[in-house]
Specification:
The chain is of the alpha/beta class and 188 residues long. The protein has a single domain, classed as Rossmann fold. Strand 3 and strand 4 form a beta hairpin. The longest helix is centred in the N-terminal third of the chain and has 17 residues. The radius of gyration is 16 Å and the shape is globular. The chain binds inosinic acid (IMP) and magnesium ion. The site of magnesium ion has 6 residues, from strand 5.
Length: 188
């Protein structure tokens, strides 16, 4: 299948699949106990689905939960506030958590989720992100597991959207000549 018009493939299906297996091996090396994967909706759903199956192949038996977070944007600049649109249902107390998100950009989303889970008594929160945009960090936070370093461009596909479109693409792509504002209310 050729990509839709204006979409340029940045990380293809083969590269993503290979990297997911490596990430799962890295996670397994940490010997997580009573592991709970917490995937941040919506953007991480495809990455999480593939990573969870790779974790299984790496010999782990994670349980899986979802949290739906939203960051409020003022124009294209994040206000720094994160809202919980849907919370996890499981008790996280004493557990090793693997927090899974699509992109680590300002770091606010991951920092918020990590603080929340630690405040609820998680034993350890490790973070896996598919992409990291290193030059955009607003808070000091790192992910233990990073799929790829991403150039400072707006990406779509493999779960990530612009105005609710392109989440279905099985690869990560860039929209060439994107001249509209991505979204005022970022639904993640
Ligand atoms: P931050 O680290 O709190 O700034 O949040 C990053 C979130 O913004 C990601 O989880 C995505 O939902 C969204 N985001 C950032 N950059 C992009 C992009 O290039 N494409 C799609 N979503 C993005
Ligand atoms: Mg997100």
């Amino acid at each position: 299948m050729t990509p839709p018009p204006r979409i340029r493939v940045l990380f293809d299906e083969t590269a993503i699949a290979r990297r997911n297996e490596e990430l799962a091996q890295e996670v397994a090396k940490q010997k997580p106990e009573n592991l709970l994967v917490v995937a941040v909706l919506k953007g991480s759903f495809m990455f999480a689905a593939d990573l969870i199956r790779a974790l299984h192949r790496a010999g782990l038996e994670p349980q899986v939960e979802f949290v739906h977070l939203s960051s409020y944007l003022d124009g294209t600049v994040s206000s720094g506030q994160v809202a919980i649109l849907r919370d996890v249902e499981s008790d996280v107390r004493g557990r090793d958590i693997l927090l899974v998100d699509d992109i680590l950009e300002s770091g606010r989303t991951v920092a918020f989720a990590k603080d929340l889970l630690m405040a609820r008594g998680a034993k350890r929160v490790l973070t896996a992100v598919l992409l990291e945009k290193p030059h955009k960090r607003a808070v000091t936070i790192d992910a233990e597991f990073v799929g790829f370093t991403c150039p400072d461009v707006f990406v779509v596909g493999y779960g990530m959207d612009v105005a609710h479109s392109y989440r279905q693409l099985p690869y990560v792509g860039v929209i060439d000549h994107m001249d509209t504002e991505p979204h005022l209310f970022d639904e993640q």
